[in-house]
Amino acid sequence: MTGGEDAFRTLYRAHTPALYALALRLSGSDQHEAEDLVQETWVRATRKMSGFRGESALRTWLCGVLVNVRRERARSAWRMVDAPDIEPAAPPRDDAAFDLERAIAALPDGARDIFVLHDVYGYVHREIAEMLGVVEGTSKSQLARARTLLRKALSPDEARS
Amino acid sequence: MSELPDNIKRALSELPREREPDPALEERVVRAVLGRRRRWLWVGAATAAALLLLMAHPWSPARAAGETYVLLLSPGPGYLAPPPGQLEERRAEYGRWADSLARAGKLDVEGHLEPPGDVVDGLFIIRAASDSDAARIAATCPHIKYRGHIEVRRFVE
After folding, report:
1. pLDDT in tens, B10-39
2. Residue B132 above 90 pLDDT?
3. If contacts are CB pairs under 8 Å, which of residues 53-112 in chain B contact chain A?
4. Residue B112: φ, ψ to 5°
5. pLDDT tens, position by position, B84-130
6. Which chain B residues contact residue A151 at CB under 8 A?
7. Domains of chain A
8. Which CATH code is given to the segment(s) B46-155?
9. Cβ atoms within 10 A of the Cβ of B102, count?
10. Contact of B80 with B149, CB cutoff 8 Å
């Protein structure tokens, strides 16, 4: 094993579990898609390491790379050709059986990214805006939208009212 | 700001923040990251050799009339990168485009730069009748279809 490979494996093992959890959540628990996202994130990150300026934690920067990789892939036509169609997760049937992960997966892409980063991973709007290349106002409005949708999905009574 | 009920907040706080992927992913990623570098080194060496040949020998007789232009390819902010595992296919597509130029006597060099960077990733040296002809040729490159950026520069010997 070369020194460079050794160093990379150390980095990989330190950060991949967090990246993989994020990738699973953003891809609607699609394991193959999540693995592809993690791989592409590392390829992109090692190529763009000069873009990491130490202003944010390395993990925050890597998460930003991953979110942007996922967004590019979602926009790309190839994905529709190459990947099997993933059925969007159905909203839970009642309060008792609610499945939070599935409800998150069913959120619209843009709102889900911001919701997951803010409410699950605890990033603040400033960090999210930097990661996604949007203004903080967009991050705030998308979070509000996601919370409203999630509340309705998990509370059938509210959805009907 | 829209707030969530306490039961959902509590459930969110209990979601796992880390998940161990399939152990096989590590080897796949290491191959993708380190293998790619080795491939780029090879391509870089091939490009350097081609450039040396270009400088050492006069233009071939089949070369089209006109001026020499350098097409500098860069990803640009909207570049649609190939999905994992399809890099070779993407390169082959660029290669087929280059072949069509070569058959018309309009291509002198194709290749990538080493190390790959944010600014310029690859280059083609072509023959074109004029600036606008060079721009027209550049516009047919698959790189444009993938929303990449091509800078067209006249090369003066």
Report:
1. 888 888 889 999 999 999 998 888 765 444
2. no
3. 80-84, 86
4. -125, 160
5. 878 778 877 888 888 888 878 888 776 666 555 555 567 788 888 88
6. 2, 4-5, 8
7. 1-86 (1.10.1740.10), 89-161 (1.10.10.10)
8. 3.30.70.1060
9. 15
10. no
Residue count of chain A, please give it: 161
Best mutation target, A10, A19, A37, A40, to test chain B (most B CBs within 10 A): A40
SS3 A132: helix
pLDDT at A75: 66
Distance in Å, alpha carbon of A72 to nearest chain B alpha carbon: 7
Total CB pairs under 8 A between chain A and B: 105
Question: What ipTM was assigned to the predicted interfaces of this complex?
Answer: 0.76
pTM listed for this prediction = 0.55
Residue A82: which of A36, A27, A43 has the closest Cα? Answer: A36
Check residue B43 and give left, alpha or beta (phi > 0: left; psi -120 to 50: alpha): alpha
